Amino acid sequence: MQDRTPFFNTEIIKLLIKLLTSMQWAGENYRLFLKLKSIFSLKSLYSQYF
Question: Could you tell me the pTM of the whole model?
């Protein structure tokens, strides 16, 4: 049990790092998604009137 604790801690740290990087990646993707969404909504507005 004693020698499993450091391993457990490093696994938790790895998971936290993974989570943080994926959150950052998701944030960048979300900004990109918002840009695309605004472009597409402009296109749909444009196609509605013309």
Answer: 0.46
Collapsing DSSP to helix, strand or coil, 2 comes out as coil
Q: Which residues contact 6 (CB under 8 A, 6 or more apart)?
A: none
Integer angstrom CA distances of residue 5 from 9, 13, 18, 33: 6, 12, 20, 41
For the chain (50 residues), the mean pLDDT of every run of 10, in chain order, is 72 91 87 89 76
First to last CA, the chain: 71
Two tokens, residue 29 = 């993707």
Alpha-carbon span 37 to 44, nearest angstrom: 10
